[in-house]
Amino acid sequence: MKKISLFTSGIVLIFILVLVVLISLSVGAAEYPIEKVWNILTGHGNDTENFIIFSVRLPRIIADILVGISLALSGVVLQAIFRNPLVEPYLLGISGGAAFGVVIATFLGIFFYVDFLFFGLSSVSVFAFFGGIFAVLITYYVARVRNTTSILRLLLSGIIVGTLFSALIMIIMTLTESEKLHGILSWLFGSFAHSAWDDIRILFPIVIVCTLSFYFFSRDMNAILFGEEEAKHLGIDTENLKKILILLATLLTSVAVSVAGIIGFVGLVIPHVVRIIFGTNHKILIPFSAVSGGIFMLVCDTLARTIAMPIEIPVGAITAMVGAPLFIYLLRKKKYEYFT
User: Fold this and answer.
1) 152 vs 64, which has greater pLDDT?
2) Dist. CA 50–CA 203, nearest whole Å
3) Which domains can be identified in the chain, with CATH numbers?
4) Is the pTM of this model over 0.85?
């Protein structure tokens, strides 16, 4: 694409994001025209309106965007490392491991919140991160045979590990007190219903740091698409690169899971679509996938909380309805031409 086309496309995506934010702020049990929403945002609302917009909807919307960015970029990075568009956090077992960590923290009643520099750290996020790390280590260990890791073995290992953690979660849920069980179930299916500003304080700095780190390694990811041997000839330490990027992707996924639960297919759908439209250059793919992921998650969550009011549909069900057909389409393809 020409620079003017990319610039125009970027402006259009940002405009769409702002428009979707305003629409999402306006809809719900209490509906407001977009003009009224703008007036409230600029300080001309009453106490009730300010509470609904600033304390209920706005933190949820920001969490939507940050989680969408996290899952989309994790998909971009993992697909680059393993050179396969079918790889995403959900399929590698990272989401399942992170969810297991959160359920363990909830079951044991381990809750703490620590202020660290300019952001906070919760026990749920810590347990989710180590659960995700544990899952990806198991997946990688099972898939690695004679110092090689095939994509097929990696995908199968991820599915097995994810299934294992799902079974462990089910066992823990049967032992969980009934008052905690409803919250765990709601969270497992994917939900932003309890998103608050404390979640933003955890998500925002991690998303910013990981996004900038991914962009810094975008040249290396471009090189590794042509094969590890070619990347090594360019002076890239591919093993260290994979470890760093997998660690960052796991961190992003785990924090997203700790806030919103298990939400699959975002890391599959968004990178795939953006790659087809804008190409495989990660200097373009990373920022465009980030914005697109934020838009996609915000649209899905807005639909989840409005299409069956007052009942809220799990947002994971909405993303799966979009992602599952695309996943089937990818499996049916014989080649993935956009990786060559």
Assistant:
1) 64
2) 23
3) 3-339 (1.10.3470.10)
4) yes
